[in-house]
Amino acid sequence: MRIGLYPGTFDPVTNGHMDIIGRAVKLVDRLVIGVAQNDDKGPLFTTAQRVEMVRAEVAYLDADIDVQPFSSLLMHFAEHLNAQMIVRGLRAVADFEYEFQMTAMNQRLNDDIETVFLMADPRHQAIASRLVKEIARLDGNIDSFVSPAVAQAVRQKVQKRV
User: Fold this and answer.
1) Per-residue pLDDT tens digits for 101-130
2) What is the CA 55 to chain-centroid distance, rounded?
3) What is the pTM of this model?
4) CA-based angle 58:131:63, to the nearest 5?
5) 128, 150 Cβ separation under 8 angstroms
6) Which of 6, 43, 86, 128 has its CA 20 to 30 A from that of 53?
7) Backbone phi, then psi, for 54, in 5-degree steps?
8) What SS3 state is found at 110?
9) Cα–Cα dist 106/159, whole Å
């Protein structure tokens, strides 16, 4: 069984994430979406909320998908899952430079686990969770960047913080 791991903070999960997930499930028998705890980034949503949000967003996909939180080293989590590949999305050259470094380090930690890059659909290349949150905080329209359910959740969180 080919197991792929798509890690991220998903704060919040965007249409860009969903595009990568929809394509990643075609490459593996089982896709695990690893929701990184990553409190250092000051997430808008708790880890549990992000896990539930991603689960709700992928529920309609006809694929073997599991959504799990993790707080360990990515390669330790991948090994625990018996994953053969890590799936990463690329939007721009800046993403490539960062991902290139991470891939090289991960390969040194375990060269049996491949990293596979999927280019973002051009419609989603500008979407970043950080920007979605910023637009929402400034009362902008985020409807074209996230699903209606995620947009509502983001707006509710942002209003509570004001």
Assistant:
1) 999 999 999 999 999 999 988 888 888 999
2) 12
3) 0.94
4) 10
5) no
6) 86
7) -65, -40
8) coil
9) 39
Q: Which two tokens stand for residue 45?
A: 């949503």
Residue 125's CB is within 10 A of a number of other CB atoms, namely 15
What's the per-residue H, E or C state across 114-151? EEEEEECCHHHCCCCHHHHHHHHHCCCCCCCCCCHHHH
**Residue 106: predicted pLDDT:** 92
Could you give the CA distance from residue 44 to residue 11 in angstroms, rounded to a whole number?
Answer: 6
Q: How many CB atoms lie within 10 A of CB 118?
A: 17
Can you read off the two tokens belonging to residue 86? 């890590």
Catalytic residues: 17, 41, 91, 129
Q: Please, where are the H alpha helices in the chain?
A: 15-24, 47-58, 74-81, 93-109, 129-137, 148-161
Tokens of 123: 């419609």
Q: Which residue has the tokens 């969180």?
A: 157
* φ, ψ at 2 (rounded to 5°): -85, 120
What's the whole-number average pLDDT of the chain? Answer: 93
Backbone angles phi, psi at 45, to 5 degrees: -110, 150
DSSP state of 29: S
Report d(CA 156, CA 30) in Å as an integer: 33
Question: Whole-angstrom Cα distance, residue 69 to residue 1?
Answer: 22
Residue range 154-159: mean pLDDT, rounded: 93
